Amino acid sequence: MSSPRDLIRAATARLTEAGVASPEYDASELLAHVLGTSRSRLSLVDDVDAQQQADFEDLLARRATREPLQHLTGSAAFRHVELQVGPGVFLPRPETELLAGWAIERAQDVGPGAVVVDLCCGSGAIALGVADEVTDAEVHAVELDPAAHAWAARNLLGSGVVLRLGDMADALPELDGGVDVVVCNPPYIPLEAWASVAPEARDHDPALALWSGEDGLDAIRVLESTAARLLRPGGWVGTEHADVQGESAAQVFLDSGRWTEVRDHSDLAGRARYLTARLAR
Ligand SMILES: C[S@@+](CC[C@H](N)C(=O)[O-])C[C@H]1O[C@@H](n2cnc3c(N)ncnc32)[C@H](O)[C@@H]1O
C-alpha cells in the first residue's frame, strides 16, 4: 500500500524526466482516474491498493511516451461541459474556450433563436459549449473527417445541435444568408512548423486537424468565403489561428473587402489567438 502523495511525487519526477509540460497535474489526474475520484478529492484517500498501483503504473508509462493525458482518461473538459475523446479526434484546448466565449456572447446579443454554426467542429467542443450556455440558440456543427464526426455525434447526442458530415466549403447551403454567428477552430499549422509541434499533438491529433498548407492559412481562406456565404449582413465570424498569424489571418479577411470590424484578440499570455469580423451590410 502507498499513499497518493508518495505515488504522485514519484510519478511527477518520472513525467518531468519525460518532458511532460504539466507533470504534477497529469500524475494527479491519472491517479484520480484510476481511483474513480477527482483530483481535488485525492487528499481524502488514505491508501492505494496493489491493483490500483499497477493500473496507475500502466497509465503513467503511456503518458511518459507522450500519449496525451485525455486519451488515457477518455475525457476532456471544455468550459462547462465534458467531452468524450480518444484516437481519431482533435483534443479540445483551453485556449479555444476564449473563442467559444466570444461566440456565446455574440449569440446572447442576438437573443432567442440566434443561429450559430461551428465549422470544423472536431469533438463538438465549441458547438456543445454554445448550446450549453445559450440554450435558446439554434446550433449547427460541421466536420469533414468521419472518425472525428463519430466522436462529435457521441458528444452532441441529446444536445439539440444539428451535426453534419462534410466539407465546410459547401456546407449548409440551406442556411445561406441566415446565420448570425460562424465560429471555427480550423487546422492552421504551417507545414514547415512540423518539428516545433509537441509530440502529443504531432503524433496523436489527426493530421487533418493540424496542417493547412505552406503558410497554415488554407482553411482560413475557405472559412472566409464560407462565412461570407452563410452569414446575414452584419453577422459575425470568429476564427482561431496560430500566434504568428495575427496579421496574416486578418489580411485574408481585409483582402476580400467583404468585412468590417476585423479585429484580432490575444489570450491571457498576450499571444495573438483569434480573429473576429463582421459581414458588411
Ligand atoms: C483544430 S481541429 C478543431 C476541432 C474543434 N473545433 C476544437 O476546437 O476542438 C480542426 C477540425 O477541422 C476538421 N476539418 C479540417 N478541414 C475541414 C473542412 N474542410 N471542413 C470541415 N472540417 C474540417 C478536422 O478534421 C478537425 O476535426
List the helices and strands and how they pair.
Layout (H helix, E strand, L loop, with lengths): L3 H14 L5 H13 L14 H15 L4 H5 L1 E4 L2 E4 L11 H15 L4 E5 L5 H9 L4 E6 L2 H11 L5 E4 L13 E6 L14 H6 L2 H4 L7 H13 E10 L5 H11 L2 E8 L5 E8 L2
Parallel strand pairs: 3-4, 3-6, 4-5, 6-7
Antiparallel strand pairs: 1-2, 7-9, 8-9
The protein binds S-adenosylmethionine.
S-adenosylmethionine (SAM) binds next to helix 6, strand 4 and helix 9.
Primary descriptors:
alpha/beta; two-stranded antiparallel sheet; 281 residues; seven-stranded mixed sheet; binds S-adenosylmethionine
Summarize the structure.
With 281 residues, the protein is of the alpha/beta class. The protein is built from eleven helices and nine strands.
What do these coordinates show?
This protein is of the alpha/beta class. The protein is 41% helix and 20% strand. The protein has 11 helices and 9 strands. The protein has helices spanning 4-17, 23-35, 50-64, 69-73, 96-110, 125-133, 146-156, 199-204, 207-210, 218-230, 246-256; strands spanning 75-78, 81-84, 115-119, 138-143, 162-165, 179-184, 231-240, 259-266, 272-279. Strands 5-4-3-6-7-9-8 form a 7-stranded mixed sheet, with helices on both faces. It has a two-stranded antiparallel sheet with strand order 1-2. Helix 6 links the parallel strand 3 (115-119) and strand 4 (138-143). Helix 5 (96-110) crosses helix 6. The longest helix has 15 residues, at 50-64. It is elongated. The mean pLDDT is 96. The site of S-adenosylmethionine (SAM) has 24 residues, from helix 6, strand 4 and helix 9.
